[in-house]
Amino acid sequence: MSVVICTRNRADLLRKAIASVVRQDFPRSLYEIVVVDNGSTDHTREVVSEFEVDDRVVYIREERTGLCVARNTGWRSCRGSYVAYFDDDAIAQPGWLLAIGDAVERCGPNMGAVGGRVDPMWEGARPEWLSDGIAGSLTIVDWGPSEMVIPDLARAWLVGANMVVPKALLESVGGFDPRLDRYGNNLLSSGDVFLQKKIAERGYSVVYVPKIAISHLVPLYRLDQTWFRSRFYWQGISDAMMYTIERVPSRRQRYRAALGRAVRLMRSPRRLRSLVLPTTDPDTFALKCFALIDVGFIRGLLGVRR
Asked: What's 74's domain CATH number?
């Protein structure tokens, strides 16, 4: 198994992430850790070198910016048959690798992707205006206590912070689409979900196993309404990008789709009010965020690029 950690200028968080994997109670000979440095300018290289006395830890420098680019570099550089994606601001909970190994063995050859729970590590107090309906944008995942095959990726999904995919399948589907997910300072997203869609389309299962659990940092700067407004606007742009990749629409088809979404938004005075009025009510702020997805989708189809 290969654990891939993509990182950029988060050296101190990366140190904790690597340490949490190295400490796992799992046979040393059965896994490696591949750190993909996506053009860091801090002391990332020095942090990884602290762990390179352990031959399980491999450092790779990738100068081409982009999370999906780095993730693709990771799986292409792996020696393991399974690629476990893990974030540089996460902590693997005890038993994480054992749970992955058990799930891979039980799920069999039809398993396309498997992942699990992501618990938040709050850097600040959770705001009162933050409802569960939008908290998932902070990479919080909890689909319940039971293992399940995810039936509908529009309603439940795995996240790239805690997701395992067979290397051969990654190669077969072409890996992550570099047109999606973080690039520079934007909040483009959904590269992980789009990959799962491609996997499911090939007839493989996407499986949620809650015992495959990690903790993930929720930094203070994200506990702000400005960040959420931007995050959900960019989710709309991400959705528009996925629509364009999947359907390859003509310009006329893009404009018609944008018009349809605009009409839907205009027909809801409550959603329109939520866009312009400040609020601390959790339900109303969630409505604002979902309306911003529509705005981003429309803008994305009309030609927004990075």
From this structure: 3.90.550.10
